[in-house]
Write a structure and sequence with these properties.
Strand 16 and strand 17 form a beta hairpin. The protein has a four-stranded mixed sheet. The chain folds into two domains: 224 residues, no CATH class; 80 residues, Immunoglobulin-like, CATH 2.60.40. With 321 residues, it is α+β, with helices and mostly antiparallel strands. The protein starts with a helix and ends in a 6-residue tail after the last strand. 25% of the residues lie in helices and 30% in strands.
């Protein structure tokens, strides 16, 4: 937004003061996406608009609802889209691993990764625009003008907690207000944090990255604050090994514990043997323990239905250092 530097700084300072224990929210603008897309973004160094990503086969996983996309103005799909805040209504619809028959409007982002960008630097780009609400709605307007930015009702954008029934439509619309960048956004100088939901999902992301990209971003890949995620659905919190058993510890508060089709595989380093188990349907509330005879060090993976839940190196024996 051209010539808006002072307005942007005042916005960040004012809302950092007003939001109490959420005072860090205005310091960033947010993009959450499926872990496969996050890997593609970090490897390429760019965040692309939906249309450009699809045209160049860069979208590894589509976590949006087809119904919502079909009713979105086609022009809006030419923007990179970021949010002013986490925990948007859009995120609520698709966060977490849900059974195939339990996905809201077909939207699904089983393992969401948050990319947190410097809000001042991003908003202050010449080409940045902002919307006053959900760009999937016919009500939304967008502009790069400072007057437009100043008129956005940020008390509704940053609204947190239960929504009064009479205000639901308005608050849901405003919580989804966006920052818009035409076509693509170079991330290297703007990306401040890469946040994962759990230690197991952080290990999965690190495992999926190339060596060079992992080294570049390692210190910024963190386990995210609780105010980034709703945490109401299934995901792996931790993976441990005990003797010849690998134990997956799941979110005990999941409202969608399955049943899932479970596929587990373990590949021993230096050998071509894979131990796999496919086809068991089970509800996952706390722990899932599997026996892996004679294992030492290898790569374990767990898929629930069509979603990777964990991928990482595991150690069954003590490793001398």
């Amino acid at each position: 937004m051209r010539h808006c530097g002072n307005i942007i700084r005042k916005h960040i300072n004012d809302w950092s003061t007003r939001l109490g224990n959420l005072n860090w929210w205005p310091k960033y603008v947010y993009h959450f996406t499926d872990i496969h897309n996050a890997v593609s973004i970090l490897e390429s160094g760019y965040l692309y608009s939906r249309n450009l990503a699809r045209a160049n086969n860069l979208m590894q996983a589509d976590n949006a609802s087809n119904d919502v996309i079909q009713h979105t103005n086609p022009e809006h799909l030419n923007f990179v889209r970021l949010y002013f805040r986490p925990k948007t209504p859009t995120q609520y619809r698709n966060e977490g691993i849900r059974p195939l028959d339990g996905r809201d409007l077909g939207a699904h982002c089983g393992v969401p990764i948050f990319l947190c960008f410097d809000s001042y630097e991003t908003l202050n780009l010449d080409e940045s625009e902002v919307s006053n609400g959900n760009m999937g709605s016919h009500r939304a307007n967008h502009s790069s003008q400072p007057e437009f930015f100043s008129q956005i009702p940020f008390h509704l954008v940053y609204h947190s907690g239960a929504i009064p029934d009479g205000d639901k439509d308005e608050i849901v619309f405003r919580r989804n207000a966006e920052i818009l960048i035409p076509d693509k956004l170079a991330i290297t100088n703007l990306l401040r944090l890469i946040c994962c939901r759990s230690a197991a999902e952080r290990q999965t992301l690190l495992t999926m990255l190339s060596d060079a990209t992992r080294e570049k971003w390692f210190e910024k890949i963190r386990i995210g604050d609780y105010s980034l995620y709703f945490r109401k659905w299934t995901f792996v919190e931790e993976v441990v090994t005990v003797e010849d058993r690998i134990i997956f510890r799941f979110n005990p508060n999941s409202t969608t514990p399955g049943p899932f089709n479970i596929k587990f595989s373990y590949t021993e380093d230096g050998e071509e043997r894979i131990r796999s188990w496919n086809g068991k349907r089970e509800s996952l509330v706390n722990n899932l323990g599997l026996v892996v005879p004679n294992a030492t060090v290898g790569i374990a993976s767990l898929k629930l239905d069509d979603t990777i839940a964990y991928l990482g190196r595991v150690y069954f024996t003590e490793i001398p250092f």
